[in-house]
UniProtKB/TrEMBL annotation:
Residues 133-223 form the Acyl-CoA oxidase/dehydrogenase middle domain. This is Acyl-CoA dehydrogenase. InterPro entries: Acyl-CoA_DH_CS, Acyl-CoA_Oxase/DH_mid-dom, Acyl-CoA_Oxase/DH_mid-dom_sf, AcylCo_DH-like_C, AcylCo_DH/oxidase_C, AcylCoA_DH/ox_N, AcylCoA_DH/ox_N_sf, AcylCoA_DH/oxidase_NM_dom_sf. The lineage of its organism: Archaea, Methanobacteriati, Methanobacteriota, Stenosarchaea group, Methanomicrobia. The keyword Oxidoreductase applies. PROSITE patterns: ACYL_COA_DH_2. The keyword Glycosyltransferase does not apply. Residues 21-121 form the Acyl-CoA dehydrogenase/oxidase N-terminal domain. Residues 235-381 form the Acyl-CoA dehydrogenase/oxidase C-terminal domain. One of its GO terms (molecular function) is acyl-CoA dehydrogenase activity.
Length: 387
């Protein structure tokens, strides 16, 4: 059973009419277990881009978005539960859904009605028929996003973009890339379509984990973008990026919980099978300590993540909670996945048992969309401002 009782309990706690969500989540869980999980090891080993066709049919990407844009209009905690299960099966698949959700929410919040209709609905970003990428980071600056150098000069009804992006997830597969650049009014964001002249995806960068997704640079040279594809207001891009990152951080926390849950469940089973000194290793207290810590920390991270999603549904500012959820869940996932390798002993270190994939995938989560250092600074800053 992929939709576990801990998830069901939280959904039950949040919604008196939880049955309708439980049914849907069970079906997504079965799909993740039967259709996504069997390919996850291959996706990682061979660096294969996951197939999103079936996922699109199950409507996972559309869960939290309004029906008028072909979304399902369901609460964020339901989306988080679905993402958690996807990540438990295959973190590559879940990360693309997370990036997609972040871009869609940006267009929903800040785009005008034409942009929402065209990109979210007609171009299929909400459902996942069209794929999205988010391009903020540059060789000069990741954490220090205000200092990016890509610029956009307005000439008549066209912006002309020049610059270079790096470490961008999947721009080669994406139909729409949200690109951040500086105009004379400040940081702004632009909706760029695949194949726009002057927009060139450069080398794919091999990496530690998440190997099914491309990670590329983008060379932007005299790339002409119609003024109507400026997202929202000129000069407001930094605020937009921050708000999108709140969603990104909350969904990355869900990924962390799902990845850790996968490593934990494997560890439980292995500890009951593996014998040493005439006993199952699960009988040793030092192994039990690890299992107990894993279960407790995963549940703590899960609660923080669903709580953040609940606040998002209620229209609250989630800047601090999203940062806390990602900070805690990502560091938790690293501890849990490291303990899983330890419980597997030497077999945790080799490819065959597919254990170290979880640690390698989790390693990204303390870096992307705000490093742990940046998030600690942000959480403290918000708390200090409020006192
Ligand atoms: C797999 C992967 C996928 C990614 N996908 C995307 C994507 O789709 N789109 C995108 O735009 N970017 C993406 N990124 C980039 C990612 O967001 C950045 O790597 C991240 O924001 C950190 O930036 P940086 O690498 O430039 O590190 P830096 O900002 O150079 O930081 C280096 C170190 O210094 C620390 N540091 C920096 N400033 C401070 C400070 N004020 N106080 C304390 N410590 C500090 C950092 O925490 C870090 O430990 C991706 C990265 C990876 C690895």
């Amino acid at each position: 059973m992929f939709y576990i009782k801990e998830q069901r309990n939280i959904i039950g706690m949040l919604f008196p009419d939880a049955d309708k969500y439980n049914q849907m989540l069970e079906s997504i869980g079965n799909f993740a277990e039967k259709e996504i999980l069997p390919d996850a090891k291959k996706v990682d080993h061979e660096g294969i881009f996951p197939d999103f066709k079936e996922l699109v049919k199950h409507g996972v990407m559309a869960i939290p978005f309004p029906e008028e844009y072909n979304g399902s209009g369901l609460p964020y905690p339901v989306y988080i539960a679905a993402l958690e299960m996807l990540a438990k099966a295959c973190a590559n698949t879940a990360l693309q859904v997370s990036v997609q959700g972040m871009v869609c929410e940006g267009i929903r919040l800040f785009g005008n009605e034409r942009q929402r209709k065209e990109f979210l609905k007609e171009r299929g970003l909400v459902g996942g028929r069209g794929l999205a990428a988010y391009a903020l980071t540059e060789p000069c600056c990741g954490s220090d996003a205000r200092s990016i150098k890509t610029n956009a000069r307005l000439s008549g009804d066209t912006y002309i973009l020049n610059g270079y992006k790096i470490l961008i997830t999947n721009p080669g597969e994406a139909d729409i890339i949200l690109v951040f650049a500086n105009t004379d009014k400040g940081l702004s964001s632009f909706i760029v379509e695949r194949g726009t002249p002057g927009f060139e995806i450069t080398r794919n960068m091999p990496k530690l984990g998440l190997r099914g997704l491309g990670l590329s640079g983008i060379r932007i040279k005299d790339c002409r973008i119609a003024r109507e594809n400026l997202l929202g207001e000129d000069g407001e891009g930094f605020e937009y990026a921050k708000q999108m990152l709140n969603i990104g951080r909350m969904t990355l926390a869900a990924l962390a919980v799902g990845i850790a849950q996968a490593a934990y469940e494997k560890s439980l089973m292995y500890s009951k099978e593996r014998k040493a000194f005439g006993n199952n290793i699960s009988s040793f207290q030092l192994i039990q300590e690890k299992l107990a810590n894993m279960a407790t920390e995963i549940n703590a991270a899960r609660l923080l993540t669903y709580y953040t999603a609940h606040l998002k549904d209620k229209g609250k500012d989630i800047a601090s909670e999203a940062a806390q959820a990602k900070l805690f869940a990502s560091e938790m996932a690293l501890r849990v996945c490291d303990d899983a390798i330890q419980i597997y002993g030497g077999y945790g270190y080799i490819d065959e048992r597919d254990i170290h994939r979880h640690w390698r995938d989790a390693r990204f989560l303390t870096i992307g969309e705000g490093t742990s250092e940046i998030l600690r600074g942000l959480i403290a800053h918000i708390s200090l401002r409020q006192t």
